[in-house]
Amino acid sequence: MGSPQAGVHHSASSWRQPCPPAASAERSTLVEEVAKRVLALGQGRLLVGIDGFTAAGKTSFGHEVAEWISAAGRPVLRAALDDFKKPWRDRHLYDRESGEGYYRNAFDYEAVRNLLLNPCRSSGATSCVLCSIDPLTQRDHSSQTTPLGADVVLIMDGVFAFRPEINEYWDFRVWLRVDAELSVQRGAERDQDWAGSEAESVHRDRYLVAECIYLQEVDPLPMTDVVIENSVFESPRIIAP
């Protein structure tokens, strides 16, 4: 790639997952293709949104693309919409536990705009915030700032990333496709530690219901730049456009 490696700056959130090891040549090739498409957008700050069902592999894919872009010489910021949810202590103020309540009320779009997306879009801004409220510890990180370079690439993953509240910010949109039932199975396995025996019902009755509302109301797939079938981690493939 020829350029000195730049850094990847991650959120302080305890929810953060590690970058997965290389799984296959096929996957590495696809990650490279997407990363090159992002870099082809040119210089200046770039904002990439990665969306898809819960447990579709959004965070892992974001980490992989971030590592490739940083190796090409562009600094990268990694963020997750899960780090911009409303505090759990305020859940008595609104429904957050039904599927519709989760879709309508869980995320703090004002916070993600004010702390992260607006600064990234402002040429005069020199710093941003990558995490508002840690979703596990509930620790407030909104005063912890990260420097904003002139050519940084922000890669942010999360469900509902293309909702009207924030969709206009993205320069490049990725949708990771997995079957709804696979999403429930993967998510339930992943979240056993905190959800226990309720993990499957949380994913089936809350997250999946919310995601179906999102698909119905927003219809995000036609606005994406690339749709990737990600059901088999070792063998992802681009299926659209």
What does this structure look like?
It is a single chain. It contains seven helices and nine strands, in the order E-H-E-H-E-H-H-E-E-E-E-H-H-H-E-E. The chain is α/β, with parallel strands linked by helices. The protein starts with 7 loop residues before the first strand and ends with a strand. Helix 1 (25-39) crosses helix 2 (58-71), helix 3 crosses helix 7 (199-218) and helix 5 (180-190) packs across helix 7 (199-218).
* Beta fraction: 15-25%
User: What count of structural domains?
Assistant: 1
**How large is the radius of gyration?**
17 Å
Mean pLDDT: 93
CATH architecture: 3-Layer(aba) Sandwich
The low-confidence parts are none
Number of helices: 7
- Along the chain, the helix and strand elements come as EHEHEHHEEEEHHHEE
Roughly what percent helix?
25-40%
Q: Largest sheet, described in full? A: 7 strands, mixed
Distance between the termini: 27 Å
CATH class: Alpha Beta
What's the quaternary structure here? single chain
